[in-house]
Amino acid sequence: MKGLYIHIPFCAKKCEYCDFVSYSGMESRIDEYLDALSAEAAQRGGARVDTVFIGGGTPTILNAEQITRLCGIVRNNFELSSGAEWTAEANPGTVTDRKIYAMLKGGINRISAGVQSFNDRELRAAGRIHDAETAYNTVISLVKNGFRNISIDLMASLPYQTPETFAESLRTAAELPLEHVSVYSLIIEEGTPIKEKYDEGIYSEPDEDTDRELYSYTKSFLESRGFYRYEISNYARHGYESKHNMLYWTCGEYIGLGAAAHSYTGGERYFNTSDINRYMSGSFSDGERERLTKRDMMGEFMMLGLRMTRGVMADEFLKRFGCGMTDVFGAEIKKHVSAGLLEYDGKVCRLTERGLDIANTVMCDFI
Length: 367
Ligand code: SF4
Description:
This protein is an alpha/beta fold. It folds into 2 domains: about 1-250, Aldolase class I (TIM Barrel); about 295-300 and about 310-365, Arc Repressor Mutant, subunit A (Orthogonal Bundle), CATH 1.10.10. About 40% of the residues lie in helices and about 25% in strands. It contains 15 helices and 17 strands. It has helices at about 30-45, 65-75, 95-105, 120-125, 130-145, 165-175, 195-200, 210-225, 245-250, 275-280, 295-305, 315-320, 325-340, 355, 360-365, and strands at about 1-10, 10, 25, 50-55, 80-90, 110-115, 150-155, 180-185, 230, 235, 255, 260-265, 270, 285-290, 310-315, 340-345, 350. It has a 9-stranded mixed sheet with strand order 9-10-8-7-6-5-4-1-11, sandwiched between helices. Strands 12-13-14 form a 3-stranded antiparallel sheet, with no helix packed on it. Helix 1 packs parallel to helix 2, helix 2 runs parallel beside helix 3 (about 95-105) and helix 6 runs parallel beside helix 8. It is globular. The model has no long low-confidence stretch (mean pLDDT about 95).
């Protein structure tokens, strides 16, 4: 399995919590950016890929013609395997029927929509450009126009959110024809407007117990609606797990194109420049590379693999690294099995329900 990631670093407006590489007010430079992307794809293309993920930023800030052009850049420079999953992130408030048509015609077959909440007060506090009705109608339009594989992102622990309003958002999500739901907790990053508001006491810090309660409710509610939890923050109907993310969690290889994208091939991580002007001038990379040692790779294989509820298979570990999982990580596994955070039956090592709640504590022991 090999993946392709393309970063579109443009947004209509920065969300209050966002520290991703994305810029607002630069839409006039999208064509120039696509020129650079096309040049980078021509340099680094040629591979056969099983998944494509267009993320950002806001890919759907591109107009229909630009979306068509972007899809052409992918198809002209990469060979897509049969049945390839091709996802684009979509921001409600930027999606039109013409753009949906351009995405479908271009080959995109999965949408990941950044809904975050179906509560207008929470959406305003998060600085989203859309309201709940727009988010709902965006999903309906996507389905009406032909998309059959739609995921939405929701956020837990947003300002003003209560367990009741969170549950209401989940119930609204369940009314929609979705195949996949991701639920992430708000992370208050340094340097973001939302961090200042927390520092000034305008919002009160989310507490960990409530956050866990929301996760536990999410699991039981979504399971009652036909989804299963296949990763710490991700729920899918069977067969609709995100193949692209599974590729990341199984340490698969991927090529990243665009400003701030990174790639992982041949045991090496390769970083593109985050400076969009530099990228558009044709200097795609700052030359930063990281070669992983075998020990690094084994640690990452465990850390990422444990994110998935299916866990890490001992025979896959052996096949990949030529040594046994317990020969390398016997002490760590034993420690967390004793604490009730991991289970290991000789074939599979996975987080228990309790371990999933405090996954970071367990995972950081492997790297
Ligand atoms: S839409 Fe996404 S990438 Fe853009 S500012 Fe908001 S969170 Fe950041």
